[in-house]
């Protein structure tokens, strides 16, 4: 035979992976995605980063509140020499041996060049950016689950088709053995049919191996026991509900979370410029407090309250701070350029995803026709063979073409689904499809 089964599946199985297990578990695609969202280490890390930014935001917010400090001291004195500037008379002056000091101070920032307000806004934008990146991580994980899930279905369906073909090939060998014994066909034809069975077995072994690899990757991602074997039904994939198909990049500009994160980072960079410029202004704070002192046998000070305004201004900052402002402006320009670069990449990604989806639909239609053609061709060749009008080579080749067309049809159907979800991912609409925000 001219056609090798290994060549049939070589292109498909390169790079895919999947299962091994004793228990067969059916898991719907949406349930698998939800499970990945719950168990994935990537999601946990993204959520932790969001929590960190949330606490950093709260920390900056705390700087706008007053600073209240309480201090107290108890001092044991040795034999001090006490001299009073006022006239205490001729009597002896008591010598103190201990001193107590207590103080409460309050400092309330009034104006700091708007650095506090801008600092809060900066951290809030960084928090929102981290939230957006966490959502992007969730979509990426969901897309990985979809790819594993679809490839697992391809592998399992391929195995089913190979096993069906293997049965018919083995039956053909049995029939040919009887025909060869009776001298109806030459031994060469029997050997060809046996060789076909061997090639089918090799392809089946490779398909089973790839199924195990894909399954292992998927159950590892879902944090399921490694012995779990997942099965994918046709209804979970082939009959998936399609929403409106994007036709341009506009939905991506509205929904892509990585672009949204950069937009918040750009806002944060503008806040950073304002903070740098805030050093040009003085800092003003309201101060107040209460003090008490007891120097035993000498003096007691109580109810000593004070209030005032404190001003600080770094005069040298007028010269030095211009560099910090330029650095902040340069970083803001970096973020702006990164955002424009991402938009260009999004345009390319969306256009490629649209083209790939359209191609997958066209190929699926062609492969549907190919199955009908290959099936009819095999029927005709088989009739001719049984009537002595074609040889064994023609029969076996027609059988191979029929098998190839069925496998190609299955792969093409799933490719349509994968390309559709890839298009949704490119336009940032994948989470809306599975309503992942509720997970």
The fraction of residues assigned to DSSP E strands is 5-15%
CATH-derived architecture: Up-down Bundle
- Which range best describes the helical content: under 10%, 10-25%, 25-40%, 40-55%, 55-70% or over 70%? 55-70%
Order of helices and strands: HEHHEEHHEHHHEEHHH
User: Using only CA atoms, what is the Rg?
Assistant: 39 Å
Strand order of the largest sheet: 2-3-5-6
Large-scale geometry = elongated
Total domain count: 1
What is the typical, i.e. mean, pLDDT?
Answer: 86
CATH topology: Outer membrane efflux proteins (OEP)
Measured distance between first and last alpha carbons:
53 Å
- The poorly predicted ranges are 1-21
Separate helix tally: 11
- Name the CATH class: Mainly Alpha
**Largest sheet, strands/sense/barrel:** 4 strands, antiparallel
Structural class: alpha+beta
| Total number of beta strands | 6
CATH H-tier superfamily: Outer membrane efflux proteins (OEP)
Overview of the structural elements:
The protein is built from 11 helices and 6 strands. Helix content is 65%, strand content 13%. It has one domain (26-77, 98-434): Outer membrane efflux proteins (OEP) (Up-down Bundle). α2 (29-39) packs across α4 (115-181), α3 packs antiparallel against α4 and α4 (115-181) packs antiparallel against α5 (187-221). It has helices at residues 5-13, 29-39, 41-61, 115-181, 187-221, 234-237, 250-255, 257-278, 317-386, 392-426, 430-434; strands at 23-26, 67-76, 98-111, 228-231, 283-295, 299-312. The strands form 2 sheets. The chain has a 4-stranded antiparallel beta sheet with strand order 2-3-5-6, with no helix packed on it. Strands 1-4 form a two-stranded parallel sheet. A hairpin with a 3-residue loop joins β5 (283-295) and β6. The longest helix has 70 residues, at 317-386. By secondary structure, it is an alpha+beta fold.
């Amino acid at each position: 035979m001219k056609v090798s089964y290994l060549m049939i599946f070589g292109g498909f199985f390169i790079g895919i992976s999947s299962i091994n297990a004793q228990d067969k578990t059916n898991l719907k695609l949406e349930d698998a995605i939800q499970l990945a969202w719950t168990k994935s280490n990537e999601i946990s890390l993204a959520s932790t980063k969001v929590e960190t930014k949330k606490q950093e935001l709260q920390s900056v917010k705390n700087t706008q509140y007053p600073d209240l400090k309480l201090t107290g001291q108890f001092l044991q004195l040795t034999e001090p020499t006490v001299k009073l500037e006022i006239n205490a008379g001729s009597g002896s002056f008591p010598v103190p041996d201990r001193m107590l000091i207590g103080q409460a101070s309050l400092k309330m920032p009034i104006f700091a060049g708007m650095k506090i307000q801008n600092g809060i806004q900066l951290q809030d934008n960084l928090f929102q950016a981290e939230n957006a990146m966490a959502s992007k991580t969730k979509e990426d994980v969901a897309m990985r689950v979809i790819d594993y899930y679809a490839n697992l279905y391809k592998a399992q369906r391929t195995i089913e088709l190979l096993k069906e073909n293997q049965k018919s090939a083995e039956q053909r060998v049995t029939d040919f053995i009887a025909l060869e014994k009776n001298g109806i066909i030459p031994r060469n034809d029997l050997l060809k049919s046996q060789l076909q069975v061997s090639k089918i077995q090799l392809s089946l072994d490779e398909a089973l191996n790839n199924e195990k690899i894909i399954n292992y990757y998927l159950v590892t991602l879902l944090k399921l026991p490694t012995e779990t074997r997942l099965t994918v039904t046709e209804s979970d994939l082939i009959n998936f509900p399609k929403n409106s198909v994007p036709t341009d990049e506009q939905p991506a500009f509205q929904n892509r979370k990585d672009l949204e994160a950069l937009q918040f980072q750009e806002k944060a960079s503008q806040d950073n410029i304002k903070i740098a410029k805030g050093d040009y202004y003085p800092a003003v704070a309201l101060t107040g407090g209460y003090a008490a002192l007891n120097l035993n046998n000498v003096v007691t000070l109580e109810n000593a309250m004070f209030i005032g305004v404190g001003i600080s201004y770094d005069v040298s900052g007028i010269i030095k701070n211009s560099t910090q402002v330029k650095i902040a402006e340069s970083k803001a320009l970096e973020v702006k350029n990164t955002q424009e670069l991402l938009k260009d990449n999004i345009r390319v990604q969306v256009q490629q995803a649209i083209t790939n989806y359209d191609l997958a639909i066209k190929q699926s239609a062609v492969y549907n026709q190919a199955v009908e053609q290959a099936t009819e061709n095999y029927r005709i060749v088989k009739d001719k063979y049984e009537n002595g009008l074609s040889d064994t080579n023609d029969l076996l080749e027609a059988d191979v073409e029929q098998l190839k067309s069925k496998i190609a049809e299955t792969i093409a159907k799933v490719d349509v689904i994968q390309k559709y979800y890839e298009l949704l991912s490119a336009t940032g609409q994948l989470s809306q499809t599975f309503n992942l925000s509720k997970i």
